[in-house]
Amino acid sequence: MSSTESVQQATAAHERATITTEGSEMVITRTFPAPADLVFEAMTNPEHIRKWWGAGHGTMTVCEVDLREGGAWHFAQTAGSSGDEVSFSGHYTTIDRPGHLVHTERFDNIDSPYSLIDTTYTEEAGKTTLRATITYDSPETVQMVLDSGMESGMQSSYDAIDDVVLALAGEAA
To answer: By C-alpha distance, which of 65, 66, 67, 91 is closest to 76?
Structure first.
């Protein structure tokens, strides 16, 4: 079976990400049906990010990535329901392609404090498990993020990444 066929079979039923919290940390885990390099590419290249960021929840208006340690990123979209622009930004602190990425993130609309996101990409048998540990400034911020409805948007975005890695696997075949 080719890598494209195995990715196609795996994306027929999207996997759900899991979220756990403890104190000021949130841990997100999700397995993608593709090698780590393709998942990393899909999650860091603006050409691909535009296809999954906020999938189905609005129109992406800004997608800037300076993928180097110390480099900045900025994503914004017009929310489909309200027409309001939502903006997120941060900086990359550690890049070890394709297995590890650390960056900061903040919700620009309310000038929120930065969170630190430490993501590992572990590949096994052609699949990649993402584990993102997000450290916020307080347990209250963790609860505020959960209450914001972020899980629905995250699940939609991760499902769209499945489609992006399928396309990338087809190009690589």
So the answer is: 65
